[in-house]
Structures are given as structure tokens and as C-alpha cells.
Amino acid sequence: MATIYLIEQGAKLVKEQKKIVIEKEGQVLLEIPDFKVERVFIFGNIQITTQAMKFLLESGIETSFFNIWGRLIGKLSPIESKNVYLRIQQYEKHKNPEFVLSYAKIFVEGKIKNMKVVLQKYSHNHPEIDFSQSIAELDGCSGELMRKVQVSSILGVEGRASAIYFECFSKMLRKGFMFEGRIKRPPPDPVNSLLSLGYSLITNEMLSTVSGIGFDPYIGFLHTLEYGRPSLPLDLIEEFRQSIVDRLTLEIINKEIINQDDFEEKEAGVYLKDAPRKKYFEQYEKRMQTEITSPETNQRQTYRKLMFIQAQKLAKSLLENQPYIPFTIR
């Protein structure tokens, strides 16, 4: 099944017989059988016909709209999932402070464990770089986490752990790329630009996943309520930031798949140019299709499938009062 990334400005997506067609100024840029399309990501000024829109909705094909720089604007959404019992449980659990606190800790605990694994693996492969002190500090954050009694305090621990981790992250970058810390928007440098783009993509995919299962995506447990913010997908991607986006960022920089000349300054930020953005999407899709051994089942699964499995596990946890175990990398 194919993921279509549309970034050719002025192009149009149309439905013709049993094909999805991308055209521009009367010329066909791409044709793909409709049964092979699984999701469509549209970036910037690209049109979509009514017939194509109807087909995408009826087929349940995930269709998302981003601005040209990768920030999610909106999605084509079919009729809401019929799983009303899950949403009722989600609302009830959200009103339970003890439940919210315990699950907020679980999400952050999983994130800190994955941060440690990234640092440990890099130190193992590059013994000239010693991250032992930082790993010990992350252990301290984990211990402190368990004593917290408010979600705001848990977010404070998560913030300190992230600062420790990203200080190390800068030392893992080669090829002259500078990174002084995580700044979300606008991204001031190429590394922040790549991280923001990747995080936006996996948030969007998790948003589609939780919505399809039947969750209300705006009700989270770690991320508090905020108008228009998909708090639950943001909760769940905390477990996947390091294994998917951070490792992808290191790989495409250190292997020189993308270099510093591939970026430009626009709207007070730094963003990928058009051609390198296509290369990024190729690498992102390759990463999402990478199979790893699940730490729980020992079965081989793609990262995209593992994200779906984690959302399903959360639903089962809410409906059946079973423990939720976060995804952790080995």
C-alpha cells in the first residue's frame, strides 16, 4: 500500500476511473491504482477535486493537509467512529485525577527509557563519547517522576529529561550541523527543522489512528486540554519520538543524505527546500516501514504498525482496566 506525498505546488489530485491521478498544467505527474493508496499527505497549494475527495472519504483513506513547511492544518475526516463506549470511558478516566496522574507518568517513563537507549547505543558504537553522566541524570529523572503528585510537575521532569537528552543529541551530530537545543517554531536551524517536520508527521499519523479506533483525540492524560490541540496523539507519540524521528534525523545528517545547503530561511525559520523535502519523505517512509522485533511479542512489526498497536493497547486498558505498557526500544 502506498503513501502519496504531494508537494508540487499548483498540482491537482483527481479521480479517474480506477486511478488516482496527479496532474499539473495539463500534464500527468503521477498515476496510481486507487486500491494501492493507503494515505495522502498534501503540502501547500495543491487542489483536490470533489470526486477525489468523495472517493478518499468513502474509502477511509487517510488524507491530511499541511502548510508548505510541514505544519498540520487539517484532515479529511469520515463519519466519527461508532466506538462510543471507548469515548465514554476516556471521558470518565479523564475526570479521575489518580488515573490521569498514573498514565502521565507512564508516558514520560517510556520516553525517558527510550532516551537512555539512544544514548547507550550511540556510546557503545562511539566509545570516544561518554554519556554516562547524562544517563545517570536521566535515571534520576525517572526516580523523581514516581514521587510527583501533579501532572504539571511530571511535565517539569519531562522537560528536564529532554534538556539533558538534547544536550547529548548535539554531540551525536556530525558534518558541521550545529544544534543548541530544541526550539519548536519557527525552527531556527536545520536540525530543529528536521525534528519539527518528523514530529508533525508522526503526530498526524497517530491522530488518524486514535480517531479511527474511536478515541476523542483532544482528550489526553499527559498533555492537558487546550483548544484545538490533539492531546492524546501527543501523549502516545512520546514513546516514538526517539526511535522514529530522532534516529531518522541523525541518519540523514550523518550519512549526508541531506546537507546544510538543502535548507533555506523563510518566514523567520529554517526549512527544507523542495527537492530535499522529497528526499526526506522517502527516508521517512522507509523508516515507518522498517520492521523491528516487538519487545513484548517478539514478532516483527513496522513502526507504523507498532504505533497502531500502542493505540489499541491504550483502548483496551481503558475499557478493561488493564495496565498500559509503553513502547520501549531495545
Could you please describe the fold and organization of this structure?
- The protein is α/β, with parallel strands linked by helices.
- It is 49% helix and 17% strand.
- The chain has ten helices and twelve strands.
- The protein has helices at residues 50-58, 84-94, 97-125, 132-145, 151-172, 190-213, 231-237, 241-254, 274-288, 303-320; strands at residues 2-6, 12-16, 19-24, 27-33, 37-43, 47-48, 62-66, 72-76, 263-266, 269-272, 291-293, 300-302.
- The strands form four sheets. The chain has a four-stranded mixed sheet.
- β11 (291-293) and β12 (300-302) form a beta hairpin.
- The longest helix is centred in the middle third of the chain and has 29 residues, at 97-125.
- The two termini are 28 Å apart.
- The mean pLDDT is 91.
